[in-house]
Amino acid sequence: MKNIFNSSLQKKFILIVTILLFVVLLISAYVTVVSNIKQTRKNLTEEAISFANLSTKPLGQNYDLYFNSGYFKFREVFTEILKLNLNIKEIQFIDVSGKIIFDSKYVGGSNYQETEDNIVDKTTLDHVLSDKPVYINNPNQSSEITEIYYPYFTDWGSHAYTARYFISYDQVRQNIISIITQAAMLLIIFLIIAVLLISVSVNKLILSPISIVSEMAHKISEGKYGRRIQIKTNDEIEVLAESTNKMARTLEQNIIDLKELDKLKDEFIDIAAGSLKVPLNHLKFDVKYLLDNGKFETKEHELLTDITVNTNKLQLLSDDLIDVTAISKDSTSNIFMPLDLTEVLKESINEVGISLKSKKIKLKASLLKTAPILGDYQKIKMLFVNIIDNAVKFSTEKDGTVEINLIEKGNSYLTEVIDQGIGIDEKEIPKLFQKFYRAPSSAVLNKEGSGLGLYLSKLICDLHHGSIWVESKKGEGSKFYVSFFKKDTFRQTYIK
Ligand code: ADP
Q1: Taking Cα atoms as reference points, which of 190, 169, 141, 168 lies closest to residue 32?
Q2: Residue 113: which pLDDT band, with cuts at 50, 70 and 90?
Q3: pTM value?
Q4: For 204-229, what is each residue's pLDDT tens digit?
Q5: Which residues pair with 92 in a beta bridge?
Q6: Considering only CA atoms, which of 481, 388, 382 is closest in space to residue 429?
Q7: Where are the beta strands (DSSP E) in 315-450?
Q8: Distance 370 CA to ligand 1 centre (A)
């Protein structure tokens, strides 16, 4: 019961059932109430006609016998007869001259109080004179008879006077109100019970299994491929659950296969790049020896220098490939050691500074006194050396200064590396952190590089749950941002 109302499917279902049931119940209640009222009105009219039919004679005789001689006796008999139909609110006896010789509304006291106003109008007199009963309908409600004129004939057959009955429909009106109240209450009670019963059974049979399937499918979509749906409903929902389980199994297997493949690929790259290292070193050393000691024509000298440049490029690529596979493999938490980001940045600046001597670009740093974080010192240094090195690499001499700032930002430390170099085209920015990506604009400077540096930097950031992003405009320089959690926040969030 507890989760009947907590899913949108359940809410929609309950809403639809309630509306449908309400409409159906309202229509049936309306039909029942209307026919009930019609029947009550008909009964009342029929009873009044029968009453007039049966009581006119005894009432007339009672009048003839006692009215003038023994009023108390008359009153007693009259009252008893009147009790037989409570919907007759008044009876008059009108003689054929149009005079009201008796009116029940004056019965009650010890004497009969006759009023002055006791002559009826022409229409009433016409009804009085009729030898047959006359029924007067309610002008607003044709099925109601409000008055009955019933002629009284003496035993000798003379039409001495006519009894006029006034019929009250107050009982019908009261009935209408009580029937409507009862119907409304029944409707509400029935609606509540029906909605509850239908909701509980539909929830148990359909909605609950569907929400189990949808919850599990959601978990699987979040990457929890090991989860399985356990339901036995013997219907389409069970088939859906089975298909979802099958999909999860296939996904799980595919991911295992992919991981295995990725591992093999990393191993292959690692071995290939490692195997390249030694021959490349030899090649570099040999060419250097030749250039230092040999005597060559200009063309041969140019070719040997070209070999050195390309050997350097190959060496850089193989180093970067080895770094990428090493970092991709390393996801254990034991790499997170306490370290000071300020120190890492100082060392990185120094390292880039050494290779800067030939350039006229200045490095300007504004660092915090200390910025304790948890991480792998060498990897984080590799990240900053790469970014600062890029800032220098993609600045020309006239571009002046590369700025490095370390600031505190909430529960993180933010490093900014700002250059005024060639900048990056807006549409290149989303691709910068992909493997082997080198913006075409940078080719203008013909800089050395593998296109793996920013990919590596992003890997290192991800490994430390940090972030890296860039703001840049072509020709206006670039701002690289790197954010790492402070030591305590990192420990509380990621070290269990
Ligand atoms: P590499 O420097 O080896 O080419 P990276 O992954 O470090 O590879 O950088 C990828 C590309 O991003 C560079 O080739 C260059 O086009 C662009 N880039 C990186 N840093 C900057 C920068 N500070 N200014 C302009 N372009 C940059």
Answers
A1: 190
A2: low
A3: 0.55
A4: 888 888 888 888 888 888 888 888 88
A5: 103, 164
A6: 481
A7: 337-340, 362-366, 372-375, 401-409, 412-419
A8: 29
